[in-house]
Design brief:
The chain has about 140 residues and is α+β, with helices and mostly antiparallel strands. Helix content is about 15%, strand content about 35%. It has a four-stranded mixed β-sheet, sandwiched between helices. It starts with a strand and ends with a helix.
């Protein structure tokens, strides 16, 4: 088991959905939650202008889906202690609506990437991604 991070870590996640009710998830290929499905996302790097840019970069790296950061709409910040077993992780989540049938390809740290119907998701999702997804899609 990896020793918990001593300093808070800053990340960004993306809820990419289609008008017909599909959401893009990646199958994690590394711990924690190896083999479980999660939202695309990852660390905000020092070279990123902000978390929105990091979210767009991570989306491209993990799924091949390239979006302009301006296409990502803020959903909220998740910063509760214990949301990640590696230590204190703070994430900004973003929503993107993309055309149905948009192709995706697993890359970077993803074992696979695919579209899932919002009403038939794999369970459980990694981390607190079910909560992020619920907030991002409320009212759909």
């Amino acid at each position: 088991m990896t020793e918990p991070a001593k300093e808070p870590q800053y990340t960004a996640d993306v809820v990419a959905v289609t008008p017909d009710g599909q959401v893009l998830l990646i199958e994690r290929d590394w711990p924690p939650y190896k083999g479980q499905w999660a939202l695309p996302g990852g660390y905000v790097d020092p070279t990123d202008a902000d978390s929105r840019e990091a979210a767009a970069r991570e989306l491209d790296e993990e799924t091949g889906l390239r979006l302009d950061p301006e296409q990502l709409q803020p959903v909220g910040r998740w910063d509760q202690p214990g949301r990640d077993p590696r230590g204190r992780f703070i994430t900004d989540a973003y929503l993107a609506v993309v055309p149905a049938g948009t192709p995706v390809t697993a890359g970077d740290d993803a074992r696979s990437a695919r579209w899932w119907p919002l009403d038939n998701l794999p369970e459980p999702l990694a981390f607190d991604h079910a909560d992020i997804l619920a907030k991002a899609t409320a009212g759909r």
